[in-house]
UniProtKB/TrEMBL annotation:
Annotated protein name in UniProt: HD domain-containing protein
Gene3D superfamilies: Hypothetical protein af1432
Stretches assigned to the HD-GYP domain: 104-300
InterPro entries: HD/PDEase_dom, HD_GYP_dom
Length: 357
């Protein structure tokens, strides 16, 4: 399995992972004529899909949670928020069940590094973002050896972290592009308004409530809403802040294309100790595949390759399958373990490459 740009879909490719639009399954994995839907997928804002072809059949892209769990969690969240809009009360039974499933998946997969997250259309960003952010937060919680109860509270607070956004004017909250100063000050209110809701509902644990209030606080006091400093911010919120920013940077938005894994991790490292808790960033990075299986990379000699497998503890040097020369022409597939060929490095990664050999 590998990830290719929608523009590069061709006759020999079979869809390898389901494509969803909201709650609807649009195209099921195994579909053989995916190239015929290039334009439709592009129009839906889907820029990449997982496919199987002769170059990648034996490459496995492990999921940290199953696709079923991810979709179920997103759908339950959509329903929970929809019910809240109508009744003004938060019914959390189903969401608690979904989080338990997510925690169970994450606990079962001991050594899986997170690969690319789900491929979804841009207008579904809000709910996909909440689910992905929760996965990332739980991975950090797992590394901290949190108990199941702690993980449940961390998960509940993280999945609801932006609840306040749906309570405020959506024209401002979901405006794509730059905001005026007044608009930005308005956006900041989503922290306090979300917190007020969950603290008055009475069924969200206090530790989880703090995440809604504090997930935009920064260690150096430059965050909002209260400008708290390092020791004043609870650990759950520090975790959610890392997960929230990482997922935002690595997601496609209408106004900005997603950053590569590498670039987003660099951002977290650069701001470790100033904006983000350095130890929590370190724990997070241990679980992210910098060059995920199935992604395309360019080697320092110009050749194109697909990442085949990871070398444990050496994330910058995976095993790769070379599929094209430096001019983009197909070549004999060659397996290269970058731990064994130290003269070669990866110079370009995943989504920066749009050519297919
Ligand atoms: Fe937020």
């Amino acid at each position: 399995m590998r990830l290719v740009s929608t523009d590069m879909l061709s006759e020999d490719m079979v869809l390898a992972k389901n494509i969803y639009c909201g709650e609807c399954l649009v195209i099921k994995s195994g579909y053989p004529n995916i190239h015929k839907y290039k334009d439709n997928l592009s129009n839906m804002g889907i820029r990449y899909v997982y496919i199987e072809d002769g170059k990648s059949t034996d490459i496995i892209v492990p999921d940290v949670i199953t696709e079923k769990t991810r979709q179920n969690c997103k759908n339950v969240l959509i329903r929970t928020i929809g019910d809240f809009r109508k009744s003004n009360s938060l019914k959390l039974v189903d969401l608690t069940g979904s989080l338990e499933q997510m925690i169970s998946d994450i606990s079962r997969n001991q050594n899986v590094q997170v690969s690319l997250m789900d491929i979804s259309v841009a207008d579904e960003y809000t709910f996909s973002h909440c689910v992905s952010t929760t996965v990332y937060a739980l991975l950090i919680g797992k590394r901290k050896n949190y108990s199941k109860r702690m993980l449940e509270m961390l998960g509940m607070g993280t999945i609801l972290h932006d609840l306040g956004k749906i309570l405020l004017d959506s024209n401002v909250m979901f405006k794509e592009g730059s905001l005026t100063k007044d608009q930005f000050n308005y956006v900041k209110l989503h922290t306090t308004s979300g917190y007020e809701v969950v603290s008055s509902c009475g069924n969200v644990p206090k530790a989880a409530q703090q995440i809604l209030l504090n997930h935009h606080e920064k260690l150096n006091g430059t965050g909002y809403p209260r400008g708290l400093k390092e020791h004043e911010i609870d650990e759950f919120s520090k975790i959610a802040a890392i997960a929230d920013v990482y997922d935002a940077l690595t997601s496609d938005r209408c106004y900005r294309k997603k950053w590569s894994t590498n670039k987003a991790l660099d951002y977290l490292i650069e701001n470790s100790g100033t904006l983000f808790d350095a130890e929590l960033v370190r724990l997070f990075m241990q679980q992210i595949a910098i060059y995920p299986n199935g992604s395309m990379v360019r080697l320092s000699d110009g050749r194109l390759a697909i990442v085949k497998d990871q070398n444990p503890n050496v994330p910058l040097r995976p095993k790769v399958r070379v599929i094209g020369d430096e001019y983009g022409n197909c070549c004999c597939y060659e397996e290269v373990d970058l731990m064994e060929v130290l003269s070669l490095t990866i110079v370009e990664s995943e989504l920066e490459i749009t050519e297919s050999a």
